[in-house]
Amino acid sequence: MSNKCVGAGNNPSPRSSHPRSSPSPRRFQPLFGEVIIRSRGRLPHWEADGATYFVTFRLGDSLPQKVLASYQFERQDIVLTAQRQGREITATERKRLDELFSEKVEGYLDAGAGACHLSQSQIADMIAGALQFFESTRYRQFAWCVMPNHVHAVFRPLPGWTLESILHSWKSFTSKEANKLLKREGQFWEPEYYDHLVRSEEEFHHYIEYVELNPVRAGLKDWKWVGVAKVLI
Length: 233
Description:
By secondary structure, this protein is α+β, with helices and mostly antiparallel strands. It has a domain at 21-63 and 115-228: Transposase IS200-like (Alpha-Beta Plaits), CATH 3.30.70. It contains 5 helices and 7 strands; from the N terminus they run E-E-E-H-H-H-E-E-H-E-H-E. The strands form 2 sheets. It has a 5-stranded antiparallel β-sheet. A two-stranded antiparallel ribbon has the order 1-2. It is globular and about 50 Å long.
């Protein structure tokens, strides 16, 4: 039996209840202090106070191990090269890191590899609710999307909260609730996640559009688990 989920977009659901509104006339202002590189697991993460992030986290069975290993190897190679030379990652290298994710990861995720538990309405609803639950208290949520085997979000942590703490909260709560619904035990999410520190207005709107249109690009019809904030600031 194939491990690809088929027809996730045919899951009966109403049309999106989150139509995109007109962008705010106020311009996005990237806010961040000193950029810190943190290492959790195999991949480095760039963080800064007041920053906005684009993040992706996925189910544990959503990528073939050889694809994941190839991505991790090339990403680490770029980071280690800069470290050995005693310098920061260059703009060209940072661009290449983003391209690696697009080339090696996005296509497999959107093709629907694995069990695709998030295509079940009850689970998708629960995760969508969790992503928005602490809006304006722990973070500003600009855009989010629950896909059949992964999740995207563009958000800014509020003072007292970090990228890591917010991701941990989302993943910990939703994994427990999803396992209850599925009557299963064990790992639900892949421990590692992908994040990109947004550095410009152009990048900000690029990732907002990417998240909003991800279901369309993946061929998911009438997919309702996507939202964009009315005020993008």
